From TrEMBL:
This is DDE-1 domain-containing protein. Pfam families: DDE_1. GO terms for molecular function: DNA binding. GO terms for cellular component: nucleus.
C-alpha cells in the first residue's frame, strides 16, 4: 500500500459519500502511507503512533483471529497434499480466496470485543474473543508436518516480526530495475519527452 493508492481510494470513497449525502468518520493507523487529507464527507482521525496493541483494534486481536483461520486453510491444504501425486501447490488466487473466507469467519463478536479492549466501551465488554477450532493441528502433528515443540499459536505468529510497509526497506521498484539494468541514453531521451512521471512504487 502506498500513499498514492490510499489517497486515490479515499477520494473515491469521499465522492461516493457526497453522492449519497452521507458523512462518516474514519479511524486510521498513524503511518506514512495514510496522508492527512481535508475531505468534505470523511473526517479522518489518526491513532497515536507506537501504541498499536493498546489503541488499535486490528492489533488487539482482529488480525490474529484472521490469521488463525488462514493458517487452518494452509494446514488443511498441506494435509491433503501428503497423499496427493501433485504435491503441495498454492497460487495467488487461492491464497486470496482463503483470505476472503478467513475474514468472513471473523465473527462480529470478535470484532466488538477487540474494539472494547482498546476503549470503545459503550456496551458491556465480552469476556473472550471467539477462537477458531485448532483440532486440525493435531492431524498435522500426526502426519509429521510440524516441527517438534511448535504450537499452533507459534505457527500463527511466525511472521509477526516481519517489517512491512513503505518504510520497511526504503527500496523502490525503479531503483531495483536501474541497479539491474542501468538506463541507456535512449531511455533518458524517452523519459525527457514525458512531462508527467508515474509515482514511485515502494516494495512492501
Amino acid at each position: 500500500m502506498t500513499s498514492e493508492i490510499f489517497e486515490k481510494w479515499l477520494r473515491k470513497l469521499n465522492n461516493s459519500m457526497r453522492f449519497d449525502d452521507r458523512k462518516i468518520a474514519m479511524i486510521l493507523d498513524n503511518v506514512s502511507g495514510h496522508p492527512n487529507l481535508n475531505l468534505s464527507h470523511i473526517k479522518l482521525f489518526f491513532l497515536p503512533p507506537n501504541t498499536t496493541s493498546m489503541t488499535q483494534p486490528m492489533d488487539a486481536g482482529i488480525i490474529k483471529n484472521l490469521k488463525h483461520h488462514y493458517r487452518r486453510f494452509l494446514i488443511r491444504k498441506r494435509l491433503l497434499a501428503v497423499d496427493s501425486e501433485t504435491g503441495f501447490k498454492l497460487d495467488l488466487l487461492q491464497a486470496l480466496d482463503w483470505l476472503k473466507m478467513s475474514w468472513d469467519n471473523v465473527t462480529p463478536t470478535t470484532i466488538k470485543h477487540c474494539y472494547q479492549h482498546v476503549g470503545f466501551k459503550d456496551l458491556p465488554a465480552t469476556e473472550e474473543t471467539s477462537a477458531p477450532d485448532t483440532s486440525i493441528w493435531s492431524s498435522a502433528e500426526e502426519a509429521g508436518l510440524v516441527s517438534d515443540g511448535l504450537s499452533f499459536e507459534d505457527f500463527v505468529a511466525l511472521d509477526d516480526g516481519v517489517a512491512i510497509g513503505p518504510g520497511a526497506n526504503g527500496l523502490k521498484i525503479d531503483d531495483i530495475l536501474n541497479s539491474l539494468h542501468p538506463p541507456s541514453d535512449d531511455d533518458v531521451n524517452i523519459e525527457n519527452d514525458d512531462n508527467e512521471y508515474p509515482p514511485n512504487i515502494h516494495v512492501l
